[in-house]
Write a structure and sequence with these properties.
Layout: H1 2-7, H2 9-16, H3 24-54, H4 64-85, H5 100-109, H6 115-127, H7 132-146, H8 163-183, H9 189-199, H10 209-224, H11 226-230, H12 245-260
Helix pairs in contact: 3-6, 4-9, 4-10, 6-7, 7-8, 8-10
């Protein structure tokens, strides 16, 4: 869809308006991973399974150190990157101050929706076959390539950024988020907040150094958490909320009966 938008941007914008967070086609593009993830859960587990999947938003328990990384460490990276680029003294970009509120809503309800697919479905499935480190790297590469069309579309933030720092930064971010995700037992809340922090409009402009710093942080995280990142037993692989195995078991048994009788059915 992104490449189609690139090829026909003028025609699409003539109908739906300029590129940006309010453009419905752009929003649909951003929501696509989340939409696919939710559809897959519903298709395989039914409505009861979908409710269990969404209950992963209630999983929040992880060590204090991870919460410090999420709430303090991430902003610190942006401010450090801004100090390197010389943007640390830039004025607050919203005037009056409460003009930031709509931007914060976009931060919470546009970009993080991707995580319903990336960390909601893709990462648990990848961790069933690979160690968390390899699963995080593979998913990071997919997410980085998925963002590529944004660099070819005028009106996006990425169109003004350097490609390779962003690309490697996205892969690095996936490595950082993977052990955090596993520590929180497959929480959906944690990657939502992580993604929101990445998009927070309050942080100063730190491109491209923020992404290079995330690469450095990812190396430190990988070294410090190497045992957990290489241990498949430490991985969160459940699509449903832990403890809801009965839903998964019932769905599996139903599908087994359908298969034996040569029937087709939707849960």
């Amino acid at each position: 869809m992104g490449m189609l938008y690139v090829l026909f941007q003028a025609k699409v914008e003539a109908v739906f308006g300029p590129m940006g967070y309010t453009n419905p086609v752009f929003i649909l593009m951003v929501y696509a991973p989340g939409i696919v993830g939710v559809f897959m859960v519903w298709r395989h587990y039914g409505l009861s399974g979908l409710r269990s999947y969404l209950r992963r938003f209630t999983l929040w328990r992880m060590s204090l150190s991870w919460w410090l990384v999420l709430l303090i460490g991430m902003p610190a990276v942006f401010y450090a990157g801004a100090a390197i680029t010389g943007n640390l003294d830039d004025p607050f970009p919203f005037s009056p101050w409460y003009a930031v509120l709509p931007a914060l809503l976009a931060m919470l309800f546009i970009g993080p929706i991707e995580e319903l697919g990336w960390r909601g479905v893709a990462l648990p499935l990848l961790q069933r076959r690979f160690s968390p480190l390899w699963a995080g790297l593979l998913l990071g590469l997919v997410v980085a390539f998925w963002h590529t069309p944004s660099f070819l579309l005028s009106g996006t933030k990425q169109s003004a950024w350097a490609f390779w720092p962003f690309f490697f930064g996205v892969v690095a971010i996936s490595v950082i988020l993977t052990p955090m995700f596993n520590a929180a037992r497959g929480s959906l809340l944690v990657p939502f907040l992580f993604h929101a922090q990445m998009n927070n409009p309050v942080w100063p402009d730190a491109q491209p150094w923020d992404m290079w710093l995330f690469v450095a942080v990812a190396v430190v995280v990988a070294v410090v958490n190497r045992k957990a990142l290489l241990d498949r037993g430490a991985a969160a692989t459940a699509i449903l909320t832990p403890g809801d195995e009965a839903v998964d078991s019932a769905t599996t048994q139903s599908r087994s009966v359908v298969a034996r009788h040569g029937l087709s059915s939707r849960p």
